[in-house]
Amino acid sequence: MMAMLALEGRWNTRAAGKAQRLASIAFALTGKVLDGERIVEVLERLIRPGDRVCLEGNNQKQADFLSRNLAAVDPERVHDMHLVLSVLGRPEHVDLFERGIARKVDFSFSGPQSLRLAQLVEDGRVEIGAIHTYLELFGRYFIDLTPNVALVAADAADAAGNLYTGANTEETPAIVEATAFRNGIVIAQVNETTGELPRVDIPGSWVDAVVVADRPYAIEPLFTRDPAEIDDVAILMAMLAIRGVYESHRVRRLNHGIGFDTAAIELILPTFGESLGLRGEICTHWALNPHPTLIPAIESGWVESIHSFGGELGMERYIAARSDVFFTGPDGSLRSNRAFAQMAGLYATDLFIGSTLQLDRDANSSTATRGRIAGFGGAPNMGSDPHGRRHASDAWLALARGDDGIARGRKLVVQLVETFRASGVPTIVERLDAAGMVGKAGFAIAPVMIYGDDVTHVVTEEGVAYLYRAENVDDRRAALAAIAGVTPVGMERRQERTAALRAVGVVAYPQDLGVRRGDARRSLLAASSMADLVRWSDDLYDPPARFRSW
Amino acid sequence: MQRIVLERAGGTPVTKRAHLGAVASGNLEVLCEPPAGDGATIVVSTSVDGYEPVWRATLERFLEQHFIAAAIEINDFGATPAMVSLRLEQALELAR
C-alpha cells in the first residue's frame, strides 16, 4: 500500500503541484473569477522562481493587464522566470528583465522593443534561448517549452471560465492547450464577464481562473496601410509582380506579408488585374490578416476565401457582413487562429510574397540590423518550401524540378523589395548585417529571415529575377545583379550577361513583361485613401481614429 | 544641400517642357526641357548630402538608356534611386 502511494506520488507530481498552487490563490477566487485588485499577490503566490511562464503577446492583442501586473511583483518572491511568448512587444515585457523577475526568454518577434532588448543582452541581463518562427515556438510549447503558467487574454468569460475571444483568437488556443493539458495553470484576463457568451472559443475546463482587466486588452491595427502613402514605385513593383509572377504561374492560393508593396498589389487587382482578365484566375484563396486594402478586390469579386492569423481593428462589421469570404462564428464575428493560419500558409498556399530590410547577393534576407534584435514573424514558415507537401497545383508544378518520373513542384517564395530603402541605404547588400551577429547577442546562428535557397523570385522596381530557373550559382547572382539597380550588388551587372539571362527567361525587365513604367501611377489604385476604402466597404469598415482625416 | 551636375554630348532633343513630382519628403521634382545647346545636362539639388556616387550611377544609367538632348533639373527631398529613375522616365515621356 505504501509502495503504491509512493509510486503515484512519483508519477503525478505535476497534478499535485497544480492543486497546491491553485490552493495558494484560493483566497482571491470566487468560483473561477479572480479579484483583480489582488492580482499582484496572486501572481507572487502562483509563480515559482525559475518557472516557465507564457505571457500572451500576439502580433495584435496583448494580455497587458497581466503583463503590467507581472512587472509589478516583488523580485524577491518571483525571479529568474523563463518567459516564453511570440511577441515581446510591450515595454513591461522588457521591464521584467530589468527588474530581475525574468532571466531567460524564448520568443519570435520583438519589433518595438528590439533596441532595448539588444541593450539588455549586451548588459548580461537577459539570456535568449532562441528566436523562433511562430510555428516552431508553438511546436516547442508541446515538447520542451511547455509553460508552468499561461497568462492569456480574451474578450469575455462566463462563470464557468469559458472564453470568448471575438475576432482576435490568435494564439490563445495553442497556448492554453499546451499549458492546460500538462497540468499548467491558465489565467485569462477578460474585458468583461457575462452570463451568456456569443460563442465559446476556449472551453472553461481548460481555464483555471479569469480576471476582469482594468481596461480592454491592448491591440494594434498592424495590418492597416493607408493607400495615400503608396507611391508610384510600389505600384510599378506591384504591376511586375502580377504580370511576372502571379499571372505567369497562375497563383491562386497565397499569403501577403505586411507592408505597402503588397498593399499596392491588393489595390491594383480590380484595375490592372481586371484589365488583364485575371479575375478568378489568380488570388482567389488567401491566408491573410483582414487587410483593409483587400476590400476593393473582395467587393469586385476576386476573393473566394480568407483565413486569418488575427483580426484587424475596424474590420469587424465588414467581416460579419461578408461571411462567405471570411471564417466567422455563429455570432458573426471573425474566428482567427494564428497556429492554423500559419500551418495553412506553410502547406496549403502556393506563394508567399514579402519584403525585407536586407537581401544579399544569394537572396538570403534578414530584418536584423546592427543594434537591434527584431526576430521574425511568420515569414520564415510561409517563405519556405515545405518538403512535407504532397498535393499538386498549377503554380506549384510550374516550378517542378527533377525527372525520371519523380518530379516535384515547389513553393513560390518571392521577395519584393525596392533596391534602396532610403536615399543612401541599399536593400540589396553584399553581406547581411545578420552575418556579423553569430556568437553575439545570443545568436547561435545568423538571424536569417528567409534563406536564399528557398527564394524562387526577386522583384524590384527594375524587374524580376527568376532565381529558380538559374542553372548555377553564378547565373543566380548575375540574375539578381541585373535587377539590383545601383546598389553595390547591382553595379556588378554586365550587359551581355544580362541579355543572355533575359533571352532564357531568368531575368525579365518591365518591357519583357508588357509593363510600361509610365503606367505606374497612383490613378491605378482602386482606392487612394482611407475614405475610399470606407466607401468600397459600403460604410462597413471603421478605420481607427488615427487613420481618419475626415 | 548638395549640387551634382552631369553632362553628355549629342542625342535627340526633347521637344516639350515637362514638370512633375512634388516637393515633399521622399519625393522629388523633375523639370525637363529642350536644351539650350547640344547634349544632355542634369543638375541635381538634393537635401541629402553624401550620396554622389549613387546619384551619378543612377543618372548615368538613365542617359545610357535614353540618347536624348535635354536640360533636366532635379530638386530632391530624399527620394530613393527607384523614385528618381521613375520620375525621370515619366518626365521624358511627357517631354518627347
Q: Care to describe what's here?
A:
The complex is a heterodimer of chains A (550) and B (96). Chain A is α/β, with parallel strands linked by helices and 550 residues long. Chain A folds into two domains: 15-219, 3-Layer(aba) Sandwich (Glutaconate Coenzyme A-transferase); 227-535, Glutaconate Coenzyme A-transferase, CATH 3.40.1080. In chain A, strands 1, 2, 3, 5, 6, 7, 8, 9, 10 and 11 form a ten-stranded mixed β-sheet that branches. In chain A, strand 23 and strand 24 form a beta hairpin. Chain B is an alpha/beta fold and 96 residues long. Chain B has one domain (2-95). Helices cover 30% and strands 35% of the residues of chain B. Chain B has two helices and seven strands; from the N terminus they run βββββαββα. In chain B, strands 1-5-7-4-3 form a five-stranded mixed β-sheet, with helices on one face. Chain B has a two-stranded parallel sheet with strand order 2-6. In chain B, a hairpin with a 6-residue loop joins strand 3 (18-21) and strand 4 (28-33). In chain B, helix 1 (52-65) runs parallel beside helix 2. The radius of gyration of chain B is 12 Å and the shape is globular. The interface between A and B is medium-sized, with 20 and 23 residues.
State the main characteristics:
heterodimer; A: 550 residues; Glutaconate Coenzyme A-transferase; ten-stranded mixed beta sheet; eight-stranded mixed beta sheet; 18 helices; B: alpha/beta; five-stranded mixed beta sheet; two-stranded parallel ribbon; 2 helices
Question: What's this model, at a glance?
Answer:
The complex is a heterodimer of chains A (550) and B (96). Chain A is an alpha/beta fold and 550 residues long. Chain A has 18 helices and 25 strands.
